Write a sequence for this structure.
């Protein structure tokens, strides 16, 4: 018996199977890998196709906010720690750990500097925030950018998972230094 790919099975689920999540008034502070709302007040929500159009036309900066896994503190002496590679949207800047609900002043400064780099200092330049599917990190980061005064904020809730599902290109990226 042939098995359908998981992506096709998910598309076959009825629309009511998706969890309806209300948009909170403030940042999400915990359970960052959970269903996300369909909206972000002040931002434009885009799917992979719209994001690809922005990417292909060079119409927006792309900011990946997937957090970086911390090095376990209890590794035995001499253990080699290798960070997991991040495959992301080509040309995206990776600013890990900026999508938490509460961030330290140092992380805030890192995020602001990264956004300045990504947008060339133009707070009116379109910028697309993403992470993975069902990840609040990108929602929080996009909301924070709006709070900073960025005017063309896009949020790709499906992240690189949705991007890859459409067979759009991915490339390995390195985290922006200083984070």
């Amino acid at each position: 018996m042939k098995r359908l790919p998981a992506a096709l099975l998910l598309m076959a689920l009825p629309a009511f199977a998706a969890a309806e999540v209300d948009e909170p008034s403030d940042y999400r502070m915990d359970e960052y890998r959970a269903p996300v709302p369909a909206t972000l007040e002040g931002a434009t929500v885009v799917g992979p196709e719209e994001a690809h159009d922005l990417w292909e036309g060079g119409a927006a900066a792309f900011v990946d906010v997937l957090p970086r896994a911390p090095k376990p503190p209890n590794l035995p002496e001499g253990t080699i720690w290798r960070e997991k590679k991040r495959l992301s949207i080509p040309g995206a800047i990776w600013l890990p750990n900026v999508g938490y609900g509460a961030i330290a002043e140092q992380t805030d400064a890192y995020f602001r500097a990264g956004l300045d780099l990504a947008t060339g200092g133009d707070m009116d330049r379109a910028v697309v925030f993403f992470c993975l599917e069902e990840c609040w990190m990108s929602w929080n980061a996009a909301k924070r950018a709006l709070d900073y005064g960025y005017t063309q904020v896009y949020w790709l809730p499906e992240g690189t998972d949705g991007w890859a599902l459409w067979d759009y290109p991915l490339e390995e990226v390195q985290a922006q230094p200083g984070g």
